[in-house]
Amino acid sequence: MAKPFHDCRMPDASLDFARPVPDAADELHAARPQPILWRDPVRPARRNGGMLGRSGSISQAALALAFITAAMAGAAAQGSSHGQPGAAPPAGLSQDEKWRRRFPQPVLVSDLIGRLVLDTGQGVLGRIETLVRSPDEQVQIVFVKRSLVGFRGDTVAIPAKAAALLGRFVMVLDLSKEDVDNLPAWTKTSMPAIERSSKIEMALTKH
């Protein structure tokens, strides 16, 4: 009968008998595919004040500043081309052109009657009595001039286009105080009075 064979050689030194045998659950977990974590490379830069976030903010601010500057330049150009209420019109313009540059607005005749008339120094010249229309269809403002004893001076008429509204007052812009003093006395003529319920266009000023 053959004797059993016993291998009396020393064990291989590379074998680590002290290492525990892996559990089946651990092997299954290691074999399972791990999820891939995706990270946005832009978000940390913006959150941490990186160059990308800072340059984006600067670009937006520069764009907004450029838009505001262009809008202000356009408004200034438009204002200079059409004039502004109270701004002195360029020299050499006719009275109609000056009047159009003062932004005429409709106003009731009844709202004008009784208003004080001022010169450009805001001195009181008189009080409006009525408005009439001349044969050439031009509106005339008829007012009683102020005297030393009140509004008992002569009655004179001026073109409505030579005056403008200043709040609750009417200011004479294209005639000086001396011009008004030298106006001939106005008398009732064939010029028809404008109905109080009618509207005329008056220029505006903030002189």
How would you describe the overall organization of this protein?
The chain is α+β, with helices and mostly antiparallel strands. It folds into 2 domains: 42-82; 95-204, SH3 type barrels, CATH 2.30.30. Helices cover 29% and strands 21% of the residues. The chain has an 8-stranded mixed beta sheet. The termini are far apart.
Separation of termini?
A: 138 Å
Mean pLDDT: 76
**Overall 3D form:** elongated
User: Could you say which structural class the secondary elements and strand pairing correspond to?
Assistant: alpha+beta
Question: What is the helix fraction of residues, given as a range?
Answer: 25-40%
Question: Beta-sheet strand percentage?
Answer: 15-25%
> How much is the radius of gyration in Å?
46 Å
Weakly predicted, low-confidence segments: 47-52
Q: Count helical runs.
A: 6
Question: How do the helices and strands follow one another from N- to C-terminus?
Answer: HHHHEHEEEEEEHE
Question: What would you say the CATH architecture of the largest domain is?
Answer: Roll
Largest sheet: 8 strands, mixed
CATH superfamily of the largest domain: PRC-barrel domain
Number of domains: 2
